[in-house]
Amino acid sequence: MRVALKFAYDGSVFWGYQRQPNVRTVEGDIIKALNRTKMIQGVKENNFQSSSRTDRGASAVGNVIAFDTDFKKGQMLRALNSNVKDVYFWGFAEVNDDFNPRHARQRWYRYHLDKGLDLDGLKRASSLFVGEHDFKNFCRRSERSTVRRMDSIKVSRKRNFIYLDIKGESFLWNMVRRMVLALVKYANGEIPKKAITEALAGKQTDFGLAPAHPLFLMDVTYDFTFEVRESSIPPSFRQNYEKVLIQGELFSTLQERIG
Length: 259
Hints:
The protein has helices spanning 26-36, 76-81, 119-126, 175-187, 193-200, 235-240, 249-258; strands at 2-9, 49-50, 59-68, 87-95, 106-114, 131-134, 147-158, 161-168, 215-221, 227-228. It is an alpha+beta fold and 259 residues long. Strands 1, 2, 3, 4, 5, 6, 7, 8, 9 and 10 form a ten-stranded mixed sheet that branches.
């Protein structure tokens, strides 16, 4: 049986997502929990795969992993949640044998900004990114294609923050954070709109990199739905999230998502 699990985590306590030797990472802790519960024998043996590798300091509400297992599916999430800290599994789906979580229909990121920023300015500039563009000036340099399509960018004010909700099929390394800083610089009058347009057209530009902590991977969607198996969020998980820069925001968002 191949399964996909949806989970949240507090990125502030990890050294990034991708497993690395001698440091604590989200993926590393998840693999340890999978081994401890005997859900898998090994990463290769059970074809363990992650959907999205978030930056160090970034958090998630709905990231996804997939692996092959014979573990009882009704007990899977509870067993994992009892064996891992600062990560909370809440969704389950049985998937095809060839399912790869990286091949998603859409990814949704949310960046939190100070409510005092120019909302209209952010809206004007954010529209420049929608559609297909070469984002080579908005990522770490890479040999692979830097062309991506942004489905939408919504700017809204809620609670004490401005939300930038950015949706697209896939993202490059640091892409969202570089886009965000360009938007903030425009809203603050530091750069003209033309600077963003020229950067998207290929003119070499470096707007800098926004901090990672206010960035959340909200969801990764596919052509199937996840069953919510863990709707009662444990108090210990909520307490851990008080350490997130946006205090309580990840918990309240997760609460809204799973009820």
